[in-house]
Specification:
By secondary structure, this protein is α/β, with parallel strands linked by helices. About 40% of the residues lie in helices and about 10% in strands. The chain is built from 10 helices and 7 strands. The strands form 2 sheets. The protein has a 5-stranded parallel β-sheet with strand order 1-2-3-7-6, with helices on both faces. β2, α6 and β3 form a beta-alpha-beta unit. α1 packs across α3, α1 runs antiparallel to α10 and α3 runs parallel beside α4. It is globular and about 60 Å long.
Length: about 290
């Protein structure tokens, strides 16, 4: 388990990777990748039980991560590579013809670390719930984590799954909302309006944990600790717990001043000069690919 300073340094490097990957590809989704970098870093380098050396897609005895918002592939791939699932140099092949690093995660090329194809918004949580229920049925006491976008929660399947997971007390399922307030067409509240997400998830029968600064590593780690404690308390009392939703207030494009808080960077690649401007704001901590 990495210490807090190492986690922060790793997150900075992953942000560099994201900017360079998307810039080299000439297409991709940097905004949400940058807002969710900290939580993925926390997951893979501190929270999750996983081992790249023994990983299989079945993930028996290991935690599973599903990126329901599959367009956040840049941060997913960079985190997997920095965790040791495949060579870091391969990050330079993002979105190239024949690459294992497709624009949305795919299992067709058998990229290590990828359990489930992602991309059709709203489906990832349903897949995660099924995997988590399967683990419980098989006596596998590991967890399943699923990252959703806030705009993604305009999809009805998310709420169908919310009902299902609560009904079946799938307490080894932890959802994570990258609540950056932006989507491709603008501010969330201007497009459809999600309202009080915490109240909604609670009403659907989930434990809800709201994180004031979802780009703060200490707050993220504390939220996961609280989630685990809630389940442990339920089991100690002789009952099943509830699925948990972590609601992280994040910033689109976090870490780069001209991208921060701008929905226009949802799916736009930086030009060469913008890549250099962004990298000047991010220290190279682990070595670039």
């Amino acid at each position: 388990m990495a210490d807090i300073n190492t986690l922060k340094a790793t997150a900075t490097q992953i942000r560099r990777d994201i900017v360079r990957m998307v810039g080299m590809a000439g297409s991709g989704h940097p905004g949400g990748s940058l807002s969710s970098t900290d939580v993925l870093t926390a997951l893979y380098f501190s929270v999750m039980k996983h081992n790249p050396a023994t990983w299989t897609r079945e993930s028996k005895g290991q935690d599973v991560f599903i990126p329901s918002a599959g367009h956040l592939a840049p941060v997913y791939y960079a985190t997997l590579a920095r965790s040791g699932y495949f060579p870091v140099a391969e990050l330079g092949t993002l979105r190239k013809f024949g690459s294992r690093l497709q624009g949305h995660p795919s299992t067709a090329h058998k990229l290590p670390g990828v359990v489930q194809p992602s991309g059709s918004l709203g489906q990832g949580l349903a897949c995660a719930a099924g995997i988590a229920l399967g683990k419980k049925s098989n006596g596998d006491d590991t967890r399943v984590f699923c990252l959703l976008g806030d705009g993604e929660q305009e999809e009805g399947e998310v709420w169908e799954t919310a009902i299902f997971a609560a009904h079946h007390r799938i307490d080894n399922l932890i959802g994570i909302t990258d609540w950056n307030g932006k989507q491709i067409d603008g501010d969330i509240n201007d497009v459809a309006g999600l309202g009080d997400l915490k109240a909604k998830w609670a009403a659907f029968g989930w434990e809800t944990i709201e994180v004031a600064d979802g780009n703060d590593m200490e707050q993220i780690l504390a939220a996961f600790a609280k989630a685990f404690a809630l389940t442990a308390e339920a089991h100690k009392a002789g009952r099943e717990g509830k699925p948990v939703m972590l609601l992280l207030h994040t910033e689109m494009g976090h870490g780069i001043d001209f991208m921060a808080g701008q929905h226009g960077w949802h799916g736009k690649a930086p030009k060469a000069e913008e890549v250099e401007k962004a990298l000047a704001q991010l220290d190279e901590t682990l070595g670039d690919f």
